[in-house]
Specification:
5 helices, single chain, 255 residues, elongated, nine-stranded mixed beta sheet, alpha/beta
């Protein structure tokens, strides 16, 4: 027993001597052993303090999960259909608005048959149809679309062309100035020099001793309508043609 005790003591002394050897000055700069992260640091309760769940395997790679962008692709059939609709929309022609100066095609000038008894050179105005007929020879007449007097200002009768004028001046009668001011709130000028802005247009054919005329207009879209104060309106190009055809003294019949 005494020998066994001596052997144990001597072994312990050798082990202690091995670990208690004097350390060199350069040992602190030697290669350190690798750092191993203890699994205990990845315990669920520790990871909850960091605001994230414990990863599997006990290894932490980052503090925040990497954002993954999800790409949602539509089925090919839907993509093709949308592309076809888009292409169709781009290819569709644009519908241009109808110009205000354009009138109904039926009111454009044309030569028609005439079987009445009036002599060539006579002008017949049918206010209900909105047509003016200039009777020609050989059973024909030149027909034009016109604008006529609005309700309360329409009239009928027989007159003669007493005067013709190019780019006539406009002198609205006093009663017209008063009526427009009271009913429409507009102030008409006592006199307006002839020109493109003049309501009488390019030409005027004066009827007898009345205040009525056959004249042009700077509002061609009113042709075919009842809009005037009794005068007969025509497009500027149409009244210019009639001006060249009609003679002073010609009979004018308003129906």
């Amino acid at each position: 027993m005494k020998q066994l005790a001596l052997l144990l003591m001597s072994g312990a002394a050798l082990s202690l001597a091995a670990f208690s050897g004097t350390a060199g000055a350069g040992d602190r700069y030697g290669q350190r052993p690798p750092v191993v992260l203890s699994p205990d640091l990845t315990a669920p309760w520790v990871m909850q303090l960091r605001g994230q769940a414990a990863p599997r395997g006990g290894v932490v790679y980052r503090t925040q999960p990497k954002a993954v962008r999800s790409v949602i692709r539509q089925p090919r059939a839907q993509r093709v259909q949308r592309r076809q609709v888009t292409n169709a929309s781009l290819a569709a022609p644009r519908v241009k608005p109808k110009p205000a100066s354009q009138i109904d095609q039926r009111f454009l000038p044309q030569t028609v048959s005439y079987s009445g008894s009036e002599k060539p050179g006579t002008i017949i105005i049918n206010t209900s149809e909105r047509y003016l007929y200039h009777v020609m020879a050989n059973g024909q007449a030149r027909r034009y679309g016109v604008g006529v007097g609005k309700e309360g200002h329409a009239w009928s009768g027989t007159e003669k062309i007493t005067r013709k004028a190019e780019w006539p001046d406009w002198r609205p009668p006093a009663e017209m100035i008063k009526r427009v001011r009271e009913k429409e709130g507009r102030i008409l000028p006592a006199h307006m020099k002839g020109g493109p802005e003049n309501p009488l247009g390019a030409r005027a054919l004066y009827l007898g001793s009345t205040l009525y005329r056959i004249h042009g207009t700077n509002q061609p879209w009113t042709i075919g309508k009842a809009v005037s104060s009794g005068c007969i309106r025509m497009r500027n190009q149409d009244v210019t043609e009639l001006y060249e055809r009609a003679k002073v003294g010609a009979k004018v019949i308003v129906l």
